[in-house]
Design brief:
By secondary structure, the protein is an alpha/beta fold. The chain has a single domain, classed as 3-Layer(aba) Sandwich (Rossmann fold), CATH 3.40.50.150. Helices cover about 40% and strands about 20% of the residues. A 7-stranded mixed β-sheet has the order 3-2-1-4-5-7-6, sandwiched between helices. Helix 3 runs parallel beside helix 4. The radius of gyration is 17 Å and the shape is globular.
């Protein structure tokens, strides 16, 4: 959905060009990714995280979906000085690129790359041990990953979920969605139906990139019904 902004394209371009740009090696990684159309978070989301994370000062951070490591690197530079990022990736090619970028950026001590399936790796974290989670992986799996994300998130912790609007097509009728995208469409709608009005959560969708969903965990709640083995 890189070419389907959910806001006016002129406003989107303004947000990407006029807000403070990244410098140094991280800025170079961002520039090269954009030139090669490697999917990394857009600059308006970068600017938002650069503002938000110093306010939250999270120490224990989990990212679901490393890709080339750009967002994990950004997170690691903006969280608490003693903070650490654990990022999960299953794609061997992306893992190799992320490792190189972490080494080049000198962030190997601040970032742990967990290689494998997110559903397996999320289960290894203790209950309420994480301050901030950034989920940017397979959109059809957000629903399935959510119970463990909420389980490991501390009360008052924040879960950011990227690309939830699908270029605005999230609003369309299922029959109008191309067959190859219907699973993503259905699962994202099911996910949003649960989280947007749940009493244990405070949620808001920001029109950044392809929609950035921000969730604060207010209290414990049982989301086990969303687990694949429960919903089948």
């Amino acid at each position: 959905m890189m070419d389907r902004p959910v806001i006016n394209s002129d406003v989107r371009d303004y947000l990407r060009t006029e807000q403070k740009q990244l410098s140094g090696r991280l800025g170079t990684i961002q520039k090269e990714a954009n030139e090669k159309r490697v999917p990394v978070i857009p600059h308006e989301t970068v600017a938002f995280f650069n503002w938000l994370l110093p306010l939250l000062q999270p120490k224990n951070v989990v990212e679901v979906g490393t890709a080339i490591g750009f967002s994990a690197a950004l997170l690691s530079e903006k969280i608490h000085p003693e903070g650490h990022v654990s990022t999960i990736e299953r794609n061997p090619d992306m893992i190799e690129k992320a490792k190189k970028n972490f080494k080049d950026l000198g962030l190997e001590d601040k970032i742990t790359l967990l290689e494998g399936q997110a559903e397996d790796k999320l289960k290894t974290f203790d209950d309420e041990s994480i301050d901030f989670i950034f989920m940017d992986s397979a959109k059809a799996k957000y629903y399935d990953f959510f119970p463990d994300c909420i389980r490991i998130l501390k009360k008052g912790g924040v879960l950011a979920v990227d690309d939830v609007l699908q270029g605005g097509t999230i609003l369309e009728d299922d029959k109008d969605i191309p067959r190859r995208r219907r699973k993503i469409h259905r699962k994202l709608n099911d996910f949003l139906e649960v989280v947007l009005d749940h009493p244990a959560l405070d949620s808001t969708i920001l029109p950044l990139g392809d929609g950035l969903l921000m969730i604060t965990k207010k209290e414990e709640a049982d989301f086990d019904f969303m687990r694949p083995e429960k919903s089948e």
